[in-house]
Design goal:
The complex is a heterodimer.
Chain A lengths: L6 E8 L2 E8 L4 H8 L18 E4 L2 E4 L12 E3 L6 E2 L5 E2 L2 H8 L9 H14 L8 H8 L10 H18 L1
Helix pairs in contact in A: 2-5, 4-5
Chain B lengths: L14 H4 L15 E7 L5 E7 L9 E5 L34 E2 L5 E7 L2 H10 L1 E6 L6 H6 L12 E8 L3 H7 L2 E9 L11 E7 L4 E6 L4 H11 L7 E4 L16 H13 L3 E4 L2 H7 L6 E9 L5 E13 L7 H9 L8 E10 L13 H19 L3 H8 L8 E6 L5 E4 L4 H12 L4 H10 L3 E13 L5 E7 L5 E5 L8 H13 L6 E5 L16 H28 L6 E4 L2 E4 L6 E3 H7 L35 E7 L5 E13 L6 E11 L6 H20 L30 E5 L22 H13 L5 E2 L3 H8 L8 H8 L30
Parallel strand pairs in B: 1-12, 8-29, 10-11, 14-15, 20-21, 27-28
Antiparallel strand pairs in B: 1-5, 2-4, 2-6, 3-5, 7-15, 8-13, 9-10, 9-12, 13-14, 16-17, 18-26, 19-20, 19-25, 22-23, 23-24, 26-27
Classes of the chains: A alpha+beta, B alpha+beta.
């Protein structure tokens, strides 16, 4: 059996950039992102996969990074909240529609759960046909698995509708 | 115009960093820091016989292990009783690390410092602590029974008896036309911010300075506590609350053991040390709130008007009382709500149990007080066969009765004198918003669909913005940038935005030029903290006063430059100009440069202020009563708290087969005086309501008889997801406070206060069963409805008698007739 503190070198793509980290095999992906790769935008709220704050996208799909070992993403592509905005080509950033919507709709207060919501919703919005009007069921589905203690969720749901509408506008 | 922003739904200035992953929370700081982890008591009550660390010493990466034996000086003494009170006759606090005895599961026993958290926890696992178990006291009733004691020298488990009365309540009750008495319970929940606590400390041995980042609601006081406990001079210690991932009360308590031990280790080891609380630690090592037993007797007349109210509360304060009796006092004094209560007596016995400490959680005793008062109103209405809204209306303080003195002493030691309000206005708006008059039609409609529907309401008055003070500092730089700072902290309320709106409006500068700093003792050393819905009231007014001071000085300097009278000047968009004379203007940034007479021109702008550029040699460069710089510091210290108010209504539907309780509508009418940013206030209401619904239906700390917390995880402690939170309809009313310059009242806690009371009322209305324990789960409601001996409401009997509840709408075994009055003593005529 491999001892828990045996080290492995993990190669992965993070937000489009090839990265490498040498970590103990028991290191969680959440800890590796935060403490080995310095990407502290991913937050840890419960350490057992319930709150969703640590959600990142692995090969495009939402994953709770506190339930995944860093060694499990060797060779894979990880997207975090730091990689949600795009370069605008002029040294600045173009926010993702869901980021714009969160600010516009006051969908965050303390901001701790926000990265998890953003990544989950971004994945949801990107996976659907942007030209279609979003249904309430889709909205509920995208926000239903994450905990927020500040907002009461109303404005988060509003932000999903807002972002979907913006993406629909772009798709026309 | 971008400078008149008071009252506008300005988008938040903190969001840009928080939505891009650039927030800076404690655990984002100090990547090379050593990590601390704690050995915590697995027992609710035990003597520590031995701590054997030998096996841990072999762990590679271990740096240090600390137990009580390693603490010296003030650190070896008990933690402070933060808020002493004469009625807190037997205060007890724990030690940073347990000294001989543990009094709740989760109490810290040893601290391990290692190269990383994983290794630190490995070492914790190998530390063997031998305990001699003692009997555990769990729950209010066990504490009252006092078959064993939490603290040996306090055999009755009573920490404090808080008592207030406004007249001879016994005489008033004896002559009241009617009285009724009942007992009810409310259970524990907790603040449960998504970010737990955390501390990072860095010691600079060369200059003897300590910098501490902590996820706190009170950085200035943490600083003072660290200095006192570690025997440092105050000027050696800096404390910063960086981005904080929610507080809701739990982070107002300080110094937490970790806030002392992490800096202690950083100094001892000469290395950065960090501790990040994990979720289980937060459940068992932080604080809870709400649990009370309430015994209520009310005297009233045949019209439902109150004559006298006598309340005896047993409040569970957990193992220690670091935060004094603030929660009991708040319950006792806020219980009276928006009502005229001719004679009132309240006694709160605050008792020790072998559980996590009880300190303020959003609402801080108010939800319990509201629950007591509003359920009393419901019972009076039920006995008299009156509309619940009508009974409330008959008892409301009228708008012409302000200022209204309740003759009670509030948590700030000041009188409970309501400054302003319009409670009948709130009630009317609420009834319209929720469709109160249509309740019967809603009920019939739900019955036709096979569900039970009920409506309930609850009103509250909330003392907000208590003193002693907060301060604000505003400084205009030569670049035009405006720096604003206040000492109190932020945990997501949007203070950076709200305070910037206030300064933009007061000073006449674009909000884009303003930078706000909160909770950083390097920037502002005097502060109290963020609690009791006080930030906007206290720091809002303080920065407004500071901005007014800057404005006055700017006008004075600009008047010189423009050769005009200061009274003829205005500031708009950062430009000081002569009113009505276009072109006669000077930018505020230039005024800032001129405010600081210079010898050296360090940049282009500075040339304007150098000694050969200025020509008035008739007076000294800095006048006798003046000082250099365009900045001003001011403080706001209120005479007493300002009182916000509101009214909530809930419509619930209950599945008669599963007893699932669905809050289908939730209506809020809210009055917090003048509103700085309505978007942010509504956000606070939404969040508060979600916590109110959680507290009413889902959240409880499930301790077993041995004091083990059975649900110390997000898997088991049921905080609402989006699917559990109803849509909220909000209506506003604004009665400005006459007590402060901006006319504002606090808004942070309001949303949570009436939730339990309103939802209990609605469930009672739907089922016809008296609800006396909250929160209530579907299984408990099922048992209640199927319990032959459960008390039924008079309203349900009346409804059954008139045939408005058709047979068959309740499940088998449920009877809707056979009214009982168990627990209710009715005198002076029948219902």
């Amino acid at each position: 059996m491999t001892p828990v503190d045996a080290e492995r070198t993990v190669s992965l793509t993070v937000n489009g950039v090839p990265r490498e980290a040498t970590v103990p095999v028991r290191r969680l992906l959440s800890d590796a992102l935060r403490h080995d790769l310095g990407l502290t935008g991913t937050h840890v709220g419960c350490e057992h996969g319930v709150c969703g704050a640590c959600t990142v996208l692995v090969d495009g799909a939402p994953v709770r990074s506190c339930l995944v070992l860093a060694v499990q993403v060797d060779g894979r592509s990880v997207r975090t909240v730091e990689g949600l905005a795009r370069d605008d080509g002029r040294g600045g950033q173009l926010l993702h529609p869901v980021q714009e919507a969160f600010r516009e709709c006051h969908a965050l207060q303390c901001g701790f759960c926000t990265p998890g919501f953003l990544m989950t919703i971004a994945a949801g919005l990107e996976a659907r046909d942007a030209a279609e009007e979003i249904s309430e069921e889709e909205v509920d589905d995208m926000v239903g698995g994450n905990l927020c203690r500040c907002t009461g969720y109303a404005n988060i749901k509003k932000a999903v509708r807002h972002a979907a509408a913006a993406m629909r506008e772009d798709a026309r | 115009m971008t400078t008149k922003l008071f009252g506008e739904p300005v988008r938040r200035r903190e969001d840009a960093r928080l939505i891009t992953g650039r927030g800076r929370y404690v655990d984002d700081i100090g990547h090379t820091a050593l990590a601390a982890a704690f050995v915590r008591s697995p027992h609710a009550h035990a003597r520590i016989v031995d701590i054997d660390v030998d096996a841990a010493l072999d762990v590679e990466g271990l740096v240090a292990i600390y137990t009580y034996e390693d603490l010296t000086g003030p650190l070896a003494e008990p933690l402070p009783v933060l808020i002493p009170h004469p009625q807190l006759h037997a205060p007890r606090t724990g030690y940073p690390l347990a000294s001989g005895e543990v009094n709740h599961v989760g109490e810290p026993v040893a601290m391990v410092v290692a190269t990383d958290r994983y290794v630190a926890e490995d070492a914790c696992d190998r530390i063997v602590v031998t305990y001699e178990e003692l009997p555990a006291v769990v729950g209010v009733d066990a504490a009252r029974a006092a078959r064993s004691a939490v603290h040996e020298e306090i055999p009755d488990n009573v920490a404090a008896v808080h008592h207030q009365e406004t007249g001879d309540v016994e005489a008033a009750l004896a002559t009241a036309p009617r009285t009724l008495s009942f007992t009810q319970y409310i259970e524990r929940s907790a603040s449960m911010p998504l970010e737990g606590k955390g501390v990072h400390a860095r010691w600079d041995a060369d200059d003897g300075s300590l910098r501490v980042h902590t996820s706190t609601q009170a950085s200035t006081s943490v600083r003072a506590a660290i200095a006192a406990k570690l025997q440092l001079s105050l000027d050696q210690v800096e404390v910063i609350a960086p981005d904080v991932g929610g507080g809701f009360g739990v982070k107002i308590v300080h110094p937490w053991p970790e806030e002392l031990l992490v800096p202690m280790a950083a100094i001892a080891l000469g290395r950065e040390v960090k501790w990040t609380e994990d979720r289980r630690e937060h459940f068992i090592g932080s604080a809870h709130e709400r649990q009370q037993r309430q015994e209520i007797t009310v005297g009233y007349d045949d019209d439902g008007r109150l004559v006298a109210l006598d309340v005896h509360i047993w409040h569970d304060n957990g193992a220690y009382t670091p935060y004094g009796i603030i929660v009991p006092i708040v319950t006792a004094t806020q219980l009276v709500g928006p009502y005229v209560i001719p004679t009132y007596r309240v006694k709160v016995e605050s008792v020790y149990t072998n559980t996590v400490i009880v300190t303020p959680y959003r609402g801080a005793g108010r939800p319990q007080g509201c629950y007591a008062m509003e359920r009393t109103m419901d019972r009076i209405a039920d006995v008299l066969g009156l509309d619940r809204a009508e009974v409330r209306a008959r008892n409301l303080i009228r708008p012409d009765q302000f200022p209204y003195d309740h003759h009670l002493t509030f948590q700030d030691g000041r009188p409970v004198i309501y400054d302003s309000g319009d409670y009948p206005g709130l009630l009317d708006k609420l009834k319209a918003l929720v469709g109160w008059e249509d309740a019967e039609a809603m009920r019939r409609d739900a019955e036709a669909r096979g569900t039970l529907l009920g409506v309930g309401m609850a009103l509250y008055v909330e003392g907000t913005g208590p003193g002693p003070y907060e301060g604000g500092h505003v400084q205009v730089l030569g670049s035009g940038k405006v720096l604003v700072s206040t000492g109190l902290t932020s945990q997501g309320q949007g203070h950076e935005t709200v305070l910037a709106q206030i300064v933009a409006t007061e000073l006449g500068v674009p909000i884009e030029d303003i930078e706000v700093t909160t909770g950083d003792t390097r920037r502002f050393g005097y502060a109290v903290g963020t609690f009791a819905s006080r930030a906007a009231v206290m720091s809002g007014n303080a920065v407004a006063l500071a901005a007014r001071g800057v404005r006055e000085k700017a006008l004075r300097i600009a008047a010189d430059v423009l050769e005009a009278d200061p009274g003829d000047l205005e500031i708009d968009e950062g430009l000081v100009q002569v009113r009505g004379t276009p072109g006669a203007a000077v930018p505020l940034r230039t005024v800032a440069v001129l405010s600081n007479p210079l010898r050296y021109a360090f940049d282009e702008a500075a040339r304007q202020a150098t000694q050969f550029a200025t020509h008035d040699d008739s007076k000294p460069p800095v006048a006798e009563d003046d000082e250099p710089g365009l900045e001003f510091r001011d403080y706001y210290s209120p005479l007493r708290s300002t009182f916000a108010s509101g009214a909530h209504a809930a419509v619930v539907e209950i599945d008669p087969a599963t007893f699932e309780i669905d809050v289908v509508r939730y209506a809020v009418v809210h009055d917090c005086g003048n509103v700085v940013n309505p978007m942010i206030v509504e956000g606070q209401v939404h969040g508060g309501v979600a916590q109110g619904v959680g507290g009413a239906l889902y959240e409880r700390m499930a301790y077993d008889a041995d004091g083990q917390l059975q649900n110390a995880s997000f898997m088991d402690f049921l905080m609402p997801y989006a699917s559990e939170v109803p849509d909220v309809d909000i209506d506003h009313q604004q009665t400005p406070s006459p007590l402060n310059p901006l006319g504002i009242k606090g808004a942070g806690e309001a949303g949570v206060i009436p939730g339990t009371a309103a939802i209990a009322s609605a469930i009672e209305d739907a089922t016809g069963r008296r609800i006396t324990r909250m929160p209530i789960a579907p299984s408990e409601l099922f048992d209640l409805v199927n319990d032959e001996s459960a008390e039924r409401t008079a309203a349900s009997a009346r409804r059954a008698g008139t045939g408005t509840m058709p047979a068959g709408t309740m499940p088998a075994g449920v009877r809707t007739t056979g009214v009982r009055t168990t627990g209710v003593r009715t005198t002076g005529g029948g219902a």
